[in-house]
UniProtKB/TrEMBL annotation:
Transmembrane segments: none annotated. It comes from Pseudomonas frederiksbergensis. It holds the Pfam family MMR_HSR1. GO terms for biological process: division septum assembly. GO terms for cellular component: cytosol. Residues 30-204 form the EngB-type G domain. Belongs to the TRAFAC class TrmE-Era-EngA-EngB-Septin-like GTPase superfamily. EngB GTPase family. InterPro entries: G_ENGB_dom, GTP-bd, GTP-bd_ribosome_bio_YsxC, P-loop_NTPase. Its cofactor is Mg(2+). This is Probable GTP-binding protein EngB. Necessary for normal cell division and for the maintenance of normal septation.
Length: 213
């Protein structure tokens, strides 16, 4: 019998916790956090909502609407964090600089941050923002997993080719520690693979094994 991933139940019961404009407004720095990052309109909110089976993250046809660090509680020890969307031209420069300053403070100083999920639109992967995040993850030793979102917008063959191409680029430039997969929120493609990564980072993988005994 195939066991249900232990992260699944937690994601299904996730609730909004708080929004923080600055790092000192974040929850206590303890337990396990996984942050979701992505260039504006990369499908970050849709991915979060699909993974949690809820409408936790607000989706918008106007990119760049996520302007705060949004925390979602899975249990008393574990949280998901929706980071501000970046790179949209219509956002005023001072606001962009505010986001960048506080994002860097959060990423660089958060002890409970166990990994970063980076969303890339499969039709426009490896943007300047993506490259910066890859550089940061490798330099800081932060685990990173990439979701190539909107994979349903391409045929399966074209999506697979893009996956292999981006995977090859990342290995050449950043090594083989960063993992990557295809993902589609509307088609619910790639959920199991993403849940496995979350469970591992949040140290839930062992709980599934214990349940099997």
């Amino acid at each position: 019998m195939q066991l249900k991933n232990p992260i699944l139940g937690l994601c299904q019961q996730s609730t909004f916790m708080l929004s923080a404009a600055k790092v000192d407004q974040c929850p206590d720095d303890e337990g396990f956090e996984v942050a979701f990052a992505g260039r504006s309109n990369a499908g970050k909110s849709s991915a979060l909502n699909t993974l949690t089976h809820a409408s936790l993250a607000r989706t918008s046809k106007t990119p760049g609407r996520t302007q705060l660090l949004n925390f979602f509680k899975l249990d008393d020890e574990r949280r998901l964090v929706d980071l501000p969307g970046y790179g949209y031209a219509k956002v005023p420069i001072p606001l962009k600089m505010h986001w960048q300053r506080h994002l860097e403070a959060y990423l660089g100083g958060r002890e409970s941050l166990k990994g970063l999920i980076l969303m890339m639109d499969i039709r426009h992967p490896m943007t300047d923002f993506d490259l910066l995040m890859l550089d940061w993850a490798v330099a800081s030793g932060m685990p990173m997993h990439i979701l190539l979102t909107k994979a349903d917008k391409l045929t399966y063959g074209a999506a697979k080719n893009t996956l292999l191409k981006v995977q090859s680029e990342i290995r050449k430039g950043w090594g083989d520690t960063i993992t990557i997969q295809l993902f589609s929120a509307p088609k619910r493609m790639g959920l199991e693979e993403a849940y496995t990564v979350l469970a591992d980072w949040m140290e839930l993988a062992d709980k599934g094994a214990e349940a099997a005994e």
